[in-house]
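Appendix B. Extra example for self-study. Work through it before the problem class; the solution is given directly after the inputs so you can check yourself.
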Amino acid sequence: MKTSNRIPTRFLSAERAAELVAAKGFANCLAGMADYIRADFLRWNDFEKTARVANHSDDGVIELMPISDDSLYSFKYVNGHPKNHRFGLSTVMAFGVLADVDTGAPTLVSELTLTTALRTAATSALAARALARPDSKRMALIGNGAQSEFQALAFHHLLGVTEFHLFDVDAAATNKLMRNLERMGLSAKRFASTKEAVKGCDIVTTVTADKTNATILTPDMIEPGMHINGVGGDCPGKTELHADVLRMGRVFCEFEPQSRIEGDMQQMPADFEVTELWNVLAGKVPGRQAASEVTVFDSVGFALEDFSALRFMRDLAIELGVEEEISLIPDLADPKNLFGSVPASAAPRAAVRELQVA
Amino acid sequence: MKTSNRIPTRFLSAERAAELVAAKGFANCLAGMADYIRADFLRWNDFEKTARVANHSDDGVIELMPISDDSLYSFKYVNGHPKNHRFGLSTVMAFGVLADVDTGAPTLVSELTLTTALRTAATSALAARALARPDSKRMALIGNGAQSEFQALAFHHLLGVTEFHLFDVDAAATNKLMRNLERMGLSAKRFASTKEAVKGCDIVTTVTADKTNATILTPDMIEPGMHINGVGGDCPGKTELHADVLRMGRVFCEFEPQSRIEGDMQQMPADFEVTELWNVLAGKVPGRQAASEVTVFDSVGFALEDFSALRFMRDLAIELGVEEEISLIPDLADPKNLFGSVPASAAPRAAVRELQVA
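Solution. Structure tokens for the complete assembly:
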């Protein structure tokens, strides 16, 4: 009989993930993650896809996002609590797991707060490479919270965007984004309103946090040839784009059944035309067709992107020699003898306290 | 500005959980967990209940089981891979999380393989206290795998069962159970078939692992007054009881919408009568009504039991001073500055490698 059947579950803490990203560099991480996401999107039909499971409360939502192919399973735990910043907490916090489909053994537990920001930005850039004008240089960033730097970096490194127009209702958030972009050597300019910020931009990224049906972008702000990267309209009752903005051009999404419920598209009738991004990446449907066309990526975040991001972070940890593990699963010499995993000292103590079960 | 908004996520490893159970004793853990489960079942309508989300593959299933009330959220990750023992792995492996509904912050990550075995047995005993004859002394244990010792201990300590009749198609599993029960000072006898094992028993517990539509118990084996604790028929295509056994007495379950899909009840028509256990615990529906009545608890395992079990293990860790933590969530001085959590050394390395995004 074997004496150990240890399941090694790799662990990537929040600090360790940040160190890995620092060591690899933002540009490499964003590019690598975009590669992984693209590779998985091209295998779209290999995946068992489920709409995410949400537990809603007054102030937010907690969601589980599972997905699997024939060999690998992943899920993400993620919350969305727009008022969290009042308590000094992040609006979005996340972690996730990779597991082996053949045995069900969890092989990785990882932070996904930082990783989600990277994967969301990488997905936005991946979509924009197919949908924005190739000569895009100027992007408006409406919403200057936790995700905004990652959007800027992804569009700079993966698309060549060099100029950022910023607006947020919270001036302190814009201050923070300005400082961070300057630190990275990127050019940014602040504006007093969304309308002023988007004027003359090639790409408009909306990444606001309020859980309301907002109209951050209205039709009068949209210019011919603009690509709209709508990131913050991502759950029921949380939208950013005026419905008429969606009618101004072709609309693309990640996973249609989920986006119709969670995306800005939730405002539109069930037969409103939308194209899943993977079709464009796979060359089945054209992306942008004319310089004057308006394109909209109605992004909500899909489990497959987390699957890819977890794969990327796992491989990065291996590449950089990070080998931390946690013991989630009992190590049983005989898998039918779970009882035997409890130290024997339990036996004599079993009857110590008088039992009180009603 | 505060310099830290650390989210302390308590961590309970497989080893640590086993040590806690050993220190507290099986009897106290089973009794305590039964108390917690009972208390939560009595608040049935306080919970947002969801059927579990399953990703099925050829050899097994991976499930997520979320549930929440106004203040606390939990989910369990659990697999079911009946062939795992061939690779030296457990059929069922699990872990879970408690989180704060107000903020979405995860407050506990815990092993749930051992804990699930305890909570399943505690739930079985809780049901049997209301459904089995109060003078029950003899229980058949059909299926002598990883869960069987816990069932025996729960029925011994919480119901006063003193004699166990064992049968398993795997003689080695029965050997193991015999040894473990002897170590605990419990009286057990092995039989050559299910039919012989159940003869003369007050309670019959079926806890087999095969993912098939089996008929472990047939009507000819059922005696007046028996309580059947059906534990192993717990997912689509996996049953243990002949349909006519379900017609011989009153049937009780945990969460009806889930049990109709996953329980032995999956064999029955949609209008087959079943009572949710919480109604009995709350005194809304009588439990056993006559010494000759046959009762069936068609158990599949419900997210609320894991919610209770996680609460119990968290409180036990606090009581016994176990304070291990993991860092799942970034510690941000400014929650809108996630970017700032990445060490600054990233900046100069950002452009080192030439980018290759297709």
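Self-check: Residues 218 and 310 of chain B are 36 Å apart (CA to CA). If your reasoning did not lead you there, revisit section 3.
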